[in-house]
Amino acid sequence: MKDTALRHDILEALEFEPSLDAADIAVSVEDGTVTLAGHVPSFAQKRMAERIAARVQGVRAIAQELEVRLAGEHTDADDEIAARAVAALRYDGTVPSDAIQVKVEKGRVTLTGDVEWAYERHAAEAAIEPLAGVRSIFNQIVIAPKHVPAGLRGKIEAALARDALLHNSDIRVDVAGASVTLEGSVRSLAERAAAERAAWSAPGVTTVVDRLAIRP
């Protein structure tokens, strides 16, 4: 697909999402690499724009340069944002809130601590993402499983085989301890993300090295 046609498709996808204010988002494309620039009114919308662009056929990579400009003149105090973050973690049943620490500086949230599962690390970030006042999130939560189960490679290969999005993809899985390496090729950025999710979903995984290429 030509870059001009791909840019048109991405702009249409962004404008089609009713919960996204795409008026100040600029899109440029070069050899399938998409750059998102401009500004949005919240961190949640910044992430949403990236996810929407990644789902468009033909996108090979994304450079995220969107700035978060909070609506209005009022800026939430860091202690207010921190209190919201702690409450959001506490009320999310998938997050072990007692194992996670929150630090906020000028709207930039840093998460630290140890969890056993990758989904807990992702859930903690997702709980903070929509909060008012958040400008960015640095997720430094460490995955520290109590043990690595046997047959990890087989579990990941079975998960890849079950995923309809990955049908006919050429993915090879290598496991060293709790570290997983994905090699081979997929057809889109969305397929690459699906393969990563499958690997992270396996119990005991602490690291996923993605060496997948996106074939034209």
TrEMBL record:
InterPro entries given in the database record: BON_dom (IPR007055), Lipoprotein_DolP (IPR051686), Transpt-assoc_nodulatn_dom_bac (IPR014004)
Alphabetical list of Pfam families matching this protein: BON (PF04972)
Listed SMART domains: BON
Listed transmembrane segments: none
Domain BON, first and last residues per copy: 2-70, 77-145, 148-216
Record-linked PANTHER family: BON DOMAIN-CONTAINING PROTEIN (PTHR34606:SF15)
Protein name: BON domain-containing protein
Organism listed in the record: Maritimibacter harenae
